[in-house]
User: What shape does this take?
Amino acid sequence: MANIDYNYFISPHASRRRPALTRELTKRAYAVKDTISLAEGMPNEVTFPFEKMQILLKDGSSITLQGQQLHAALQYIPTQGYPPLVKTLKEFMQKVHQPPNWQDRELLVTNGSQDGISKTIELCIQEGDPVLVQDPLYAGAEIVLKPFKAELIPVEHDQHGMSAQQLMNVLEDRKAKYTEEGGGCKMPKLLYINPTGSNPAGTTMPAERRKEIYNICCKYNILILEDDAYCFMHFLDENPPSFLSLDTEGRVVRLDSLSKVLSSGLRMAWITGPKQIIANIELHIQSSCLHSSTLSQVITENLFQVWGHDKFMEHLSFIRKYYKARRDLTIDSMERHLKGLCEWNVPTGGMFVWIKVKGVSDVYDMLMSRGLKKGITFVPGHAFMADPTKACNYIRASYSKVPPKQIEKAMKLLAELIREEHLLLRRKLDNCT
Assistant: This one.
């Protein structure tokens, strides 16, 4: 790996964090089994009212937690995560991504990938710092950045995701300003990217473009925050390579999640990245929630053991087919009702279709006022733009959960709503003239 100075990426606020001695002793108690420990403030499991937990899976297999394993599931654990699950996840990451220089990376369990996004961004930036983002971007990243008054530097996307050429143009322009203005214009040190089945655009970045973007980030010393919550929900014939799998230098912090493929309520996710970065995020978790839910982690570990790697991958294949079928029926419905009124690209992954409305410069009032009265809810595109104050003619529609008949009805009502909006706009124009 390249000789990267990670202190450059860690904010002064984050660099002041120090480990809690009690947490370090808990970690040691799990690692060294023969130690008699009177150090931890752990409650005695005898006082817990739970005797046994049994979970029946849809395939007929089951998970039973009782005795020592149930005690472990209900108890404090090291901040990094439930040790057996951490081991399983490391093996999984090696099989799926085969990251270069694996010995220089670490892994940490989080309460969903939103938790990981928040803590990684807070690790890296100070107030007013510039951050490179795809435009449109996941709204959950924007709400983390907002309190920092971060300068969001938008990079345009096309049907294949963030444009590598646009990224290069933005950075070259930034570099010129930085030089001309004598250092008055900061260079960004963080790129946030959602490369597979992106939310909201539904784009999946091809391998060649990922390599181009990775090389650009190497050139400009930028840390890549790879938010890949829809990694297992692309609709392509082959798995695209992750940025982590390309990372020979050690500049990728990758966020994985099981929310979309096992259960969103389990809040099961993990961060993989350079050891120094992960160690600092671990300190943040120590100070915020001690560790992610033990019960969720023990359930997940048991599922991995009951199914094994191959059965788990079969489940992911089922997930892809399921959502691909839903995407197809949604696009068919849009073809019937929205053709001529809207434009869209067919999503290559994820749960959403990104719809451009023709003849309406700003969809906010149309959706949030008249649309709600019609009994349909879509998200105005403003929520996903680097500058949400600008007029926006995009809509995000989710095809993940609503029954097919309701999707059909919603698209029909949306078409009615857009035609009514066109009529209102024409009347306003006539009144002005």
In short: The two ends are 66 Å apart (CA to CA). The first strand starts at residue 52 and ends at 56. Residues 85 and 300 are 8 Å apart (CA to CA).
